[in-house]
Design goal:
The complex is a heterodimer of chains A (255) and B (325).
Chain A: E1 4-15, E2 18-29, E3 33-37, H1 44-52, E4 59-64, E5 67-69, H2 74-80, E6 82-85, H3 97-101, H4 116-131, H5 149-162, E7 167-171, H6 179-194, E8 198-202, H7 206-212, E9 215-220, E10 223-229, H8 235-248
Parallel strand pairs in A: 3-8, 3-9, 6-7, 7-8
Antiparallel strand pairs in A: 1-2, 1-4, 4-5, 9-10
Chain B: H1 2-5, H2 8-12, H3 14-33, H4 35-38, H5 41-66, H6 74-91, H7 96-121, H8 125-144, E1 149-150, H9 152-155, H10 159-165, E2 167-168, E3 172-173, H11 174-192, H12 194-204, H13 206-211, H14 216-242, E4 244-245, H15 253-263, H16 275-294, H17 301-324
Antiparallel strand pairs in B: 1-4, 2-3
The chains are: A alpha/beta (255), B mainly alpha (325).
Chain lengths: 255, 325
């Protein structure tokens, strides 16, 4: 039995009268990759935003490394070891790379002034060592607007590797990418497992999800409606289940 | 020359370079068109005397504009804080510390209200600050009942008067030195402090900033609060210069101040801006009226030429921006 890293218990989230999450219970073990699947509006994004501290749950408990925690902010979840990769959506277009990589956790002196030299040096390291950019066209001073989709993604991944977190949350990691770039992303996810790190990711593309994940959690209208280990279900069966869910609003769970 | 034009510095400072060239050309026109005025010192002294009043606010407002927000209420914040400063200074027989503390605290409080209306209630800043613009000016009228406050007896010749507006070496107005010092400090914060960094991120993309762990609401609130503080500071400078409070004090500042920010090259869309540009913008907007009169044109041309300056400056920036993307 592997060790439990994150456990969500009876999580509810309401936005006004809209119940987005209803009694969600999920568990992620150390070294496990979990895929969250479900249609638009199923509550996937809200659920991962609860994990990363962007949203506070309306009720329910969160356990991390066996201890009950209340995640109040993004910076708190980062300190605990949860790192989100939101792709290019979490980069600011008009700012330089060295500023973007350290956004929200700047290296500063005690007066709050940025240690520019250090930030640039570390950003350079991330660029060359973690992301493997060799092109001279991209420097730490590059503005995000000038980067391609894959390059932006590389920056987001490099950032999460650099900060050495236990749980990496990936929001639509293959969206809008070329086949080659998608391959890189999936390899990255597989590489996490080897380092005994955990990951949770959302993706629309079941074919991508199936290759990289150990377990699948299916969300529908704010509820967990199905949960399968990879050895319990083939890719075709999983696709079948999703179609079934889409058509009937229900999943048949066979004993 | 061409290697200079392609250098990293030029590429990243196009806005600053354009605005500086515009300013140089403008002052050359003054100089050639009215040498009898512009080869002598008094006109520059007059500039140094008058520019800091709106210049300080323009520098501070650059932060709010970089957020993609706007504050229209600062002219009234100048009014109410000047009034409180004048009343407290007279009531205490010239106690600078109490008067300064109360006036600047009120300025920050007014900024806090703007910030809370925008972030917690969710009113667009242009609407919220039209409301507070009327509110604070209305309060000035109610309290002052339309009459002025003279502080000449308690302020003239005091050390604090010297500190704020005295002429250094008998020539240079102290407020101009303050203006430069504050510009340098604010430029530093804008570019190299965590707060300035967050201002850029929030103005660039609010949702992304939130996901990266930046407290968007706090950044906005602090931006409005510092603008409230600098508005009160501008009010206090004006009080020392004039030694008198009048109920419309500050109300003429709105357009000159915002024009300086936009002529300076700060983007109204947020995420990008320049304190140096605003400083040059202040020199341009602050010199236009006297410059035009000195050139021998009638005062009726002032607004017309102001309009040409602002429109052409923002057109140039829009073209530069388009080239980049």
């Amino acid at each position: 039995m592997s060790e439990e890293l994150l456990k969500l218990q009876n999580i509810y989230k309401n936005f006004g009268n809209v119940k987005v999450l209803k009694d969600v219970n999920i568990k992620i073990n150390k070294g496990e990759v979990v895929a969250l699947i479900g249609d638009n509006g199923a509550g996937k994004s809200t659920l991962i935003k609860v994990i990363t501290g962007v949203h506070k749950p309306s009720s329910g408990e969160v356990f991390f490394n066996g201890e009950e925690v209340v995640i109040k902010s993004v910076s708190q979840s980062r300190k605990m070891g949860i790192e989100a990769v939101y792709q290019e959506r979490a980069l600011c277009d008009q700012q330089e790379l060295w500023r973007n990589i350290f956004a929200g956790r700047e290296i500063t002196n005690s007066f709050g002034f940025l240690d520019i030299k250090k930030q640039r040096k570390e950003a350079e390291k991330i660029l060359r060592d973690y992301i493997g950019f060799t092109s001279k066209a991209i420097t730490v001073d590059s503005i995000i607007t000038g980067l391609s989709g894959g390059e932006k993604q590389g920056v987001a991944f490099g950032r999460s590797l650099y900060f050495d977190s236990d749980l990496i949350v990936l929001d639509e990691p293959t969206m809008g990418l070329s086949i080659q770039e998608t391959e890189k992303v999936l390899n990255f996810v597989k590489g996490l497992k080897k380092k005994n790190k955990s990951a949770i990711f959302i993706d629309h593309n079941i074919i991508h999800v199936y290759g990289a994940a150990d377990r699948f959690i299916i969300l529908d209208r704010g509820e967990v409606v199905g949960e399968f280990n990879k050895d319990e279900i083939s890719r075709e069966e999983l696709v079948q289940k999703m179609i079934q869910l889409h058509e009937s609003g229900k999943i048949k769970v066979e004993a | 020359m061409s290697t200079f034009l392609n250098s990293y510095f030029v590429k990243t400072h196009r806005l600053e370079i354009s605005i500086t060239i515009i300013a140089i050309v403008l002052f050359l026109i003054y100089f050639l068109g009215a040498p009898h005025v512009f080869t002598r010192f008094p006109i520059y002294r007059a500039f140094m005397q008058s520019m800091p009043f709106f210049g300080i606010i323009a520098i501070s407002a650059t932060f709010v504009v970089t957020l993609g927000e706007i504050d229209l209420s600062f002219p009234s914040i100048v009014g109410i804080t000047s009034l409180v400063f004048g009343l407290v200074l007279t009531a205490t027989g010239g106690n600078f510390f109490i008067a300064f503390a109360l006036a600047s605290a009120l300025g920050m409080f007014a900024g806090l209200i703007n910030g809370l209306l925008v972030t917690k209630i969710g009113i667009p800043s242009i609407v919220a600050t039209i409301g507070t613009l009327y509110f604070w000016r209305g309060l000035v009228n109610v309290i002052s009942q339309g009459s002025g406050v003279a502080i000449v007896d308690v302020a003239d010749g005091t050390w604090h008067h010297t500190l704020f507006v005295d002429k250094i070496f008998g020539k240079i107005p102290a407020q101009f030195i303050w203006f430069i010092v504050l510009t340098i400090i604010m430029q530093w914060i804008y570019r190299y402090h965590k707060f300035g960094n967050h201002i850029h991120f929030v103005g660039d993309n609010k949702a992304s900033s939130q996901m990266m762990g930046i407290n968007v609401d706090n950044v906005k609130i602090i931006a409005f609060v510092q603008l409230g503080f600098f508005s009160s500071l501008a009010g206090i400078f004006t009080m020392y210069e004039m030694l008198y409070f009048w109920p419309t004090q500050g109300s003429g500042l709105m357009l000159t101040t915002l024009a300086a920010v936009f002529v300076g090259g700060t983007s109204v869309f947020g995420g990008k801006g320049t304190i140096f540009g605003t400083f040059i913008g202040v020199l341009i907007i602050g010199s236009l009226e006297s410059g035009i009169i000195a050139l021998g044109l009638s005062g009726f041309y002032v607004q017309f030429i102001n309009g040409i300056m602002i429109t052409s400056a923002v057109t140039i920036y829009a073209i530069i921006q388009r080239k980049k993307t």
